[in-house]
Amino acid sequence: MASPSSSTTTFCFQCEDSSNSVTFRNGWRLRSGKFAQLCHRCACGRVVTPLFQKSLSASDADLALSRLVIPKKCAEAYFPPLSGPHKIPINILDTDGKEWNFHFRFWPNSRSKMYVLEGLRDYMVSKKWQAGDVDAIASVYASP
Fold it and tell me: How far apart are CA 14 and CA 122, in angstroms?
């Protein structure tokens, strides 16, 4: 895989193709400042949608907890609805294009809910999470 060398280079988020003959579709700005898009070949098979970015709290970056508190508005807008506090498996695509398997659930919190992704230990180690870091998560859905 070719790695884009400049922040002005357009490349496919999935296959990292940056050749001039490639037609790109959609896109979003990555943490690195680069603008990622999908080439036609990758866009035909699936749609990659950035979900949210979050500045990590000390508890988010705690390996012993291995979980991420999801902002309520993001959880209710982008994640499957939950009928109870039981966790459901969910596959997440990170901004590097790697798929991770987590569990999504909520905890009752006063008159509201606290949404969390659990089972993030390997992900946290891979990303070297520290409090104050900003992490972005995207999800992959099969095209209709």
Answer: 21
